[in-house]
Structures are given as structure tokens and as C-alpha cells.
Amino acid sequence: MKKKIITAMRIIYSKINKDIFYFKEFGLKNLLRAKGRHVAFPCLIEVKRTDCKYPFWLREPSTDVSMYSQIFINFEYDFAIEKEPEVIIDAGANIGLASIYFANKYRQAKIIAIEPEKNNFELLLKNTAQYTNIIPIQAALWNLDGKIDILDSGLGECGYMASDKSINTVLKTPSVRYVQQVTSVTIKKIVKEYQLDRIDILKMDIEGSEKEVFSNSVEWIDKVKSIIIELHEYMKSGCNRIFYNYTNDFDNEWQQGENVFLSKGHYLKKISR
Predict the structure, then answer these.
(1) Helix 97-105 × helix 118-128 angle, to 10°
(2) Which helix (H) or strand (E) holds 136?
(3) Number of continuous H segments (helices) and E segments (strands) in the chain
(4) DSSP label at 86?
């Protein structure tokens, strides 16, 4: 009985903390909307921040709020920079939160936001519509231009992954399912299409596809000044080895949250908090 009471108290405490967080970050109206929504019908929470020029929206329930916390509360993309960036590629842009964060911090930068999954991309378009410096592309970053399958890894809205393998081979785990086929695009093609002479910041969170992307990086890696990446060795064996094999020229490295930061020289520097 005592264990059941403790467990129940922890659940209640967790729910109270969540309500306090929602009220503090999103206001009473959005707290009530989130609590009153039907499980089968997610609602959109409108977020207005003094450090963002325009409002944006999060889905509830989804992984959006968790991602919001990582970026805007834990500041996982915060760093010191030697010179204002002119070109940022946000690969695995999801609903555009990192792009929005960068667009408000570096208002002169061109930000190319790449996201493959249809529902994520639709909200990305809504969230970034007023930012003229964000260029949204619905595609999966890959090592070949063409078509690629998108799979749901079972990790929520931030866990969609690209795969060129047979669906029968990949879907050994019940939680993984086929979602759709999308365009695949290479950094080489993006560099050519947008006439980029350099990439100041390459932010990448692409659920294991970094293995394929960096295996074909010889033609563009010299243009990159810094990389912010979440590595997914647990999802695809060999990600770490391939990534570090092709980034030997980056001499400044640190871990921040879930991301590895690499910089040539001191273009990016860690901020002590």
C-alpha cells in the first residue's frame, strides 16, 4: 500500500509540475486548451516570446513541447560565435523551432530548413511563414539525389528516419512502420542550387542518416565552418565512426545537451553557464 501511495504522489507531483510549466511558458488559455483537448484530437498551442519576432505553434500531445524546452529553455543551440553567420543549414528541421531560434538570433542569415515528414513540414511552413530569411524544403538529407522512404521509428514526431533498404528488412521491430516516400537531396545539390560558397553552421538531427550524408561529404565538407549534430549510433551502427572520419579538420569540439559541436578554429565557442 505504501508503494502505491508513493507512486500515486509522484504521478500527481509530475502533473502539477507540468501544469505549472505550461502556465508559465504558454499562459492560462493554452494550459486549459491542452488539458481540455480530446486525446484523439491534438490541439495547437500558440507561443509568443519576447525574443521571437513572430508567434509559432506546438502540437499537444507530441514531442514538440520537449523540443521547445531543449531549444528555448535549456538553450542547447546557444554558443558564442566569432562572426555573424550568413548561411545556416537546418537538416532535420522538424517544425522549425531551431530555424526560428537562429532566425531571431542571426537576422541577416539565410537559413535553409530541410524536413522530410509531411505533417512536420506543414507546421514548419506555418511557423516560418513570416520569416523571409528561412527557406523551407520538404526533403530528406541523404548521400544521393532521388527518392527515399521515410519510416516512423516509434520515437514520436521527432523520430522519423530515412531508409533505402527493403521495407521487409527494416521493419523487424513492430514499432517501426513505413510512412511515405519523399525526395532525397544532397548537400552538394543544395550548395549548387543556392550558390553557397560556404556553410557557416550545419545543424543536423536526421535520425541516423548522418552516416550516409558524411560518407559522401568530400566535395562539400571544406565549405563548412561549424557543425552541430546529434549522432544516432544507437539507431544505426557506424554513425560515429563515419562522422569523425570525415571531420578531422574541425579542431574545436564539445558536447552540449544531445549535440556534438565541431568548429574550425574558434568560429564557435562554448558558453559557460
Answers:
(1) 20
(2) strand 134-137
(3) 8, 15
(4) S
Going by C-alpha positions, the residue among 270, 271, 273, 253 that lies closest to residue 262 is: 253
Structural domain for 212, as ranges? 77-269
What phi and psi values does residue 25 have, to the nearest 5 degrees? -85, -35
* Distance separating alpha carbons of residues 74 and 212, to the nearest angstrom: 30
- The answer to whether position 90 is within a domain reads yes
Question: Rounded to an integer, what distance in angstroms lies between the CA atom of residue 156 and that of residue 138?
Answer: 19
Please report whether residue 15 resides in a domain. Answer: no
pTM score of the predicted model: 0.86
* CATH number of 146's domain: 3.40.50.150
Per-residue pLDDT in tens (0 to 9) along the chain, 273 residues = 434 333 433 433 355 566 676 666 776 665 666 666 545 567 899 999 999 999 999 998 889 999 999 999 999 999 999 999 999 999 999 999 999 999 999 999 999 999 999 999 999 999 999 999 999 999 999 999 999 999 988 777 888 889 987 544 444 455 788 889 999 999 999 999 999 999 999 999 999 999 999 999 999 999 999 999 999 998 889 999 999 999 999 999 999 999 999 999 999 999 986
* Selection from 252, 257, 254 nearest residue 267 by Cα: 252
- Looking at the structure of the chain, the number of domains it has is 1
Reported as type and span, the H/E element at residue 8 is helix 2-36
Q: Within a domain: residue 216?
A: yes
Residue 55: inside a domain, yes or no? Answer: no
